[in-house]
Amino acid sequence: MSIENFYKMCLYGQLEEVKQFYNHNPDIIYGNIMETAFMNACCSGELMVANWILQMKPELDIHFDNDILFEKVCSWHQYKSAKFILALTDRNNSYHYYKYYKIAYLDDIVHLLKEIKSYIPEFDESYDVLMEKEKNDILEIYRRNNKQLC
């Protein structure tokens, strides 16, 4: 069985098959295979598989590739997974929380914003103003580009 099949098993929440594959291929713990498997599980809301992967590789970097994981779970509308990632993030490092806030703000995921703020001890309310400006700038660029296409 291939690594691609392993990724699919994670995506579809086939925990027993994932465990069997791992037992026959324990070397997948090295490199970024488990990170990709973890992302697949989180993006499809398969948190039992995601938890198992974390048990097998507790040092797994959930912030790999510039926090792409949080961005992807939000784009797949997997908000339970987003909350799961929030809970795994180091509370002493607000950098990631501000980054998550930006992703949620720009994607209009209002119900996540309050939750993310709760993880930031002294949330700077002026950040909302900056996010609104950035969102408006993005919309303006989008409008200009669409006018050029017509």
Which properties best describe this structure?
mainly alpha, 9 helices
Task: Give your account of this protein's structure.
The protein is mainly alpha-helical and 150 residues long. The protein is built from nine helices and no strands. The protein has helices at residues 3-11, 15-24, 33-43, 47-56, 64-75, 79-88, 94-106, 110-119, 126-149. Helix 3 packs parallel to helix 5 (64-75), helix 5 runs parallel beside helix 7 (94-106) and helix 7 (94-106) runs antiparallel to helix 8. The radius of gyration is 18 Å and the shape is elongated. The model has no long low-confidence stretch (mean pLDDT 90).
Instruction: Estimate the mean pLDDT confidence.
Output: 90
Number of beta strands = 0
**Helical/strand content category:** mainly alpha
Q: How much helical structure, as a percent, in the residues?
A: over 70%
Short synopsis of the structure:
Helix content is 73%, strand content 0%. It is mostly helical. Helix 6 packs parallel to helix 8.
Describe the protein's topology.
Blueprint: H1 3-11, H2 15-24, H3 33-43, H4 47-56, H5 64-75, H6 79-88, H7 94-106, H8 110-119, H9 126-149
Helix pairs in contact: 1-3, 3-4, 3-5, 5-7, 6-8, 7-8
